[in-house]
Amino acid sequence: MLYSLHELAYHSATPFRFGAQLAREFWSSPFNLASDTAIGRTAYASAELFEGLTRRYGKPAWRLDVVTVADRPVRTTEEVVWASPWCRLVRFARNPEDLERAGKPIEGPAVLIVAPLSGHYATLLRGTVETFLADHDVYVTDWVNARQVPMLEGRFDFFDYIDHVRDMLSAIGPGTHVVGVCQPGPPVLAAAALMAEDQDPCRPASMTFMGSPIDARLSPTVTNQLAEAKPFTWFRSNMIHTVPWPYPGFGRRVYPGFVQLYSFMSMNEEKHLDAHRRYFQDLVQGDGSATDKHEEFYDEYLSVLDLSEEFYLQTIDIVFQRHLLAKGELEHRGRRVDLSAITDIALMTVEGEKDDISGVGQTQAAHVLTPNIPDDRRVLYVQPAVGHYGVFNGRRFETEIYPRVRDFIARSGAIGETGTDVPAAGDDTLSERPATAA
Question: How far, in whole angstroms, is CA 218 from its chain's centroid?
Fold first, then answer.
């Protein structure tokens, strides 16, 4: 019912949205002599703000046709190299001639960036992908909106996610380095353990987890506390809704993206209100640079996707309520996930000092849970003065976090190799293991 009401509200606002668009065009027209007056600019700003708040934000484009490598433009081609009804594995193939001009090797280490499936599209990691493209052959998981998947395609759950990670690593081939950003941490770690136990030649050469809830019991945040405070039945009764017609996934039970968006925005309600007040003022003053930054951020932030019922509920149960992976009790297809089986996959964890989604300690718990990885193949890093988003995007990610991840990947090499002798960006290699998780 909630999903249908949400759709009704959107469509009911359509006439007003069209009116706002017409008003925006009228008050921005060079033929309107009043357009550059205080009244004209205020009317334009009002129409622009209303239209932006009521429009539907579809899946954003990657916009990575050209990236900068060593201060030179390098063209990329977006290729889908593997696909299922639930995910596309996208490779950004860099132009060899452009790389030569930039003085970069044509073949870089293959890196699979596993984007979070938690409400936003994978394009939220556009900046992350662009940064990695400077030195790597980059693949990224491009998750599909559950409301676009017909019921005939079946279900998608936490264990299907693990299988998807294995299948994608196999599709890329041996020697791949995997980077899990936020939510993917537990299923990616589980997939690596299963592949390690099977001695799968396509198991990752290294795994990097960034702001991931590997053990959500540590440094619990508001998000963790909410997941534990409510009984499992509450999530099933209040957070799951049915996709209405005419979406391809009509009848599918999902955790709607707009519910996740409202939850995130309510955590920082005053911050978002202030941002839109400043946006309105910048529109009135004609500050194009500030308005462009606001629009770029919110065009991405307000673009959300739905999660399948089974994946969302199992994630709540497995990761945030029963903590099965962290307690060594997770079973996949009747088989216990043994993290001690990981012996030759290098491990790096990255956390943000001010992360209010995955608190400090939750990600680095991976080091405790994988006791058989040699200490010289581990890196534990906590970035000062950044929150959750800053762990994988922004200036500090580019200048302080990414160089460490890049050097860690270069040193890790392939399975059974030590990698190249690359100086580290920081002395973060573990000399001793972190404190045991609670």
Answer: 21
